[in-house]
From TrEMBL:
Species assigned in the record: Camelina sativa
Domain Protein kinase, residue spans: 1-276
Binding sites annotated in the UniProt record for ATP: K35
Protein family membership: Belongs to the protein kinase superfamily.
PANTHER family: CCR4-NOT TRANSCRIPTIONAL COMPLEX SUBUNIT CAF120-RELATED, PROTEIN KINASE FAMILY PROTEIN-RELATED
Pfam families recorded: Pkinase
Keywords linked to the UniProt accession: ATP-binding, Kinase, Nucleotide-binding, Serine/threonine-protein kinase, Transferase
UniProt name for this protein: Mitogen-activated protein kinase kinase kinase 3-like
Taxonomy, superkingdom: Eukaryota
InterPro entries per record: Kinase-like_dom_sf, Plant_MAPKKK, Prot_kinase_dom, Protein_kinase_ATP_BS, Ser/Thr_kinase_AS
Length: 314
């Protein structure tokens, strides 16, 4: 692979753009975003690779290439651990938002992006995982073309995929939690129950989703209005809503920020919310059902019923 440019750096390593030639013809150039960690942070990288390997073929999850983490010695003589992943040409959702005035996205785009994120969370939760660090920096934007049936023409669009699974956990796992280190992910996106006693259920991701939706509306990080957000969270308050939100947007956010995690529903249920666009085509629903691993026949029947209801609204 040939190095192209440095893309960014996080708590557990850096990401760079590489180009490589397809083995089949040796000529066609492809891009890959390669995440690199040193020995100290390699555990998180190996965990991320293991989780991402379980989501191969899932349309709303960033895809990892290869069948193992690659280890090599760099020019300084240190061992580096790397995983190649698909490259998002539009960058993170945060950097994408920065191109708009005040960092605010148009409401139709927010609704469509919310649908995509719910599809991703339905896949993640359906396989027993909680992402634990959903935020705009960990959501990637891919350019896309879609066919507009109303206008009978193709139009430029975008697709979102969820990335950065280094902190993800199996649902219900709270062994990691300690009062002195109460954050599974990024504090301002965490839910009250995850901070107070380390609960990592799907409700955590749905609270974080509410924070992301708010951020798309305001262009600001959640809790921008206070420096004491931990106290607010411990008292089960939600971040401040803009006064000009539509009614269904407020209702959606109130569901995401419900005090009790179970009252936040689940990603499949929220896909039926009036805030979410209802033009989801049948093949996407079928793909989503394939992405979700179902072991209990009763759960499968429940999801089939949900899918039927969503289709009936389209």
């Amino acid at each position: 692979m040939e190095f192209q440019k440095f893309l960014g750096e996080g708590a557990f390593g850096s990401v760079s753009l590489f180009k490589y030639k397809r083995r089949r013809d040796g000529k066609t150039l492809h891009a890959a975003a390669v995440k690199t960690s040193d020995d100290e942070h390699a555990k998180s990288l190996y965990q991320e690779f293991q989780v991402l390997s379980e989501f191969k073929g899932c349309s709303r999850i960033v895809q990892v290439y290869g069948n193992r983490v690659q280890a090599r010695v760099n020019h300084m003589g240190y061992v580096e651990h790397q995983i190649p992943m698909e490259y998002a040409a539009e960058g993170s959702l945060r950097s994408f938002m920065n191109r708009f005035k005040y960092g605010k996205l148009p409401e139709p785009m927010i609704r469509e992006f919310t649908r995509m994120l719910l599809e991703g969370l339905a896949t993640i939760h359906g396989r027993g995982y909680v992402h634990c660090d959903l935020k705009t920096e960990n959501i990637l934007v891919f350019p896309s073309c879609v066919y507009d049936y109303n206008k009978g023409a193709w139009r430029w669009s975008y697709e979102l995929k969820i990335s950065d699974f280094g902190l993800s956990k199996k649902e219900g796992d709270n062994k990691w939690w300690h009062p002195d280190q109460p954050f599974a992910g990024t504090p301002i996106y965490m839910s009250p129950e995850s901070i107070s006693h380390g609960e990592t259920g799907k409700g955590l991701d749905l609270w974080s989703l509410g924070c992301v939706v708010l951020e798309m509306y305001t262009g600001k990080k959640p809790w921008w209005h206070t420096n004491d957000y931990l106290k607010e969270l411990m008292n089960c308050y939600e971040p401040l809503f803009p006064s000009n939100l539509s009614c269904d947007a407020k209702l959606f956010l109130m569901t995401c920020f419900a005090v009790e995690p179970d009252e936040r529903k689940d990603a499949f249920t929220l896909l039926r919310h009036s805030f979410v666009p209802r033009d989801v085509v049948n093949h996407k629903l079928a793909k989503l059902q394939t992405d979700v691993k179902i072991d209990n026949p009763k759960d499968l029947e429940k999801i089939r019923h949900m899918l039927h209801e969503i289709k009936s609204m389209c």
